[in-house]
Design brief:
This protein is mostly helical. It has twelve helices and three strands. It is globular, with a radius of gyration of 26 Å.
């Protein structure tokens, strides 16, 4: 039985792809071939037995408070602005580098992601906090006519790979575990969850269509679970351990026997 990995390796590119990317490309290819069979362009689907790769859930990487401080300390002003924006909005890397001046509204105190630059093709708008306002004002002051809000130290718009490489080097200088600009988004989401923000609100802020994507962050903090359990226990009256007999033949056992006899 073929697997997606075997199917992919036939003429596979030199750049390694994630299992999730391979599965998406496989599903797209299967869709095309299914249409070809339906339109009688193919007699049989040549890849019908190819199975998707199994994806194991991995721990989501996010920055601890001390890691964030260390990272910002080694960032250039240009990198620091876009890093802080990522931490304050949870925008994806492409959403950060394509943010335009017209997406920023200081009067309404909002910052938006245009539908054409959003991963799911839908625009979304976030409230602008005081720190985010300061970051955006600084960025717009130094952009010097660039089409984007955030620019490199040379005044040019950030490129996807350029931001990744510069961010990686900053992490190395800060001495923190390897991560990518997408870690900023994970950090934003995890801190919302740890602050007790409900998952539906987190879902809306992140722009997730499916809340299953948001649920990955619930394990990052047990505090909300402890609070839920504490709220439940408050419904019961306080009882001391000596009120419960530890001897065989206690009232508890007798009551169980009565239930058994009744049945």
């Amino acid at each position: 039985m073929n697997t997606a990995g075997e199917y992919r390796n036939q003429g596979a590119p030199s750049t390694p792809q994630s299992r999730a990317t391979i599965n998406k490309e496989l599903a797209f290819l299967k869709g095309i071939l299914n249409k070809a069979v339906a339109w009688k362009k193919l007699a049989e689907h040549p890849g019908k037995d190819v199975k998707a790769l199994r994806i194991t859930s991995e721990r989501t990487r996010f920055l601890a408070e001390e890691e964030e401080a260390g990272l910002l300390a080694v960032c250039s002003p240009a990198l620091q602005r876009i890093v802080e924006a990522g931490l304050l909005t949870g925008f994806r890397r492409r959403e950060l580098i394509t943010l335009r001046p017209e997406d920023v509204d200081f009067n309404r105190e909002t910052v938006s992601v245009a539908a054409c630059y959003s991963k799911n093709g839908e625009s979304r708008t976030l409230p602008m906090g005081e720190r985010m306002r300061t970051v955006l004002q600084e960025a717009l002051t130094v952009r010097s006519g660039a089409p984007t809000v955030f620019v490199t130290k040379s005044g040019r718009p950030w490129l996807f790979r350029n931001l990744s490489s510069v961010f990686k080097r900053a992490c190395q200088r800060a001495g923190i575990a390897p991560c990518s600009p997408h870690t900023l988004r994970h950090t934003f989401a995890s801190r919302l969850v740890m602050a007790g923000v409900n998952l539906r609100t987190v879902q809306e802020l992140l722009g997730h269509k499916d809340i299953k994507m948001t649920l990955r962050y619930t394990h990052l903090s047990s505090s909300h679970k402890r609070q839920a359990m504490a709220a439940l226990e408050q419904r019961f009256p306080a009882q001391k351990s000596h009120q419960f007999s530890q001897h065989p033949g206690s009232g508890h056992v007798q009551s169980v026997a009565k239930v058994v006899n009744f049945r």
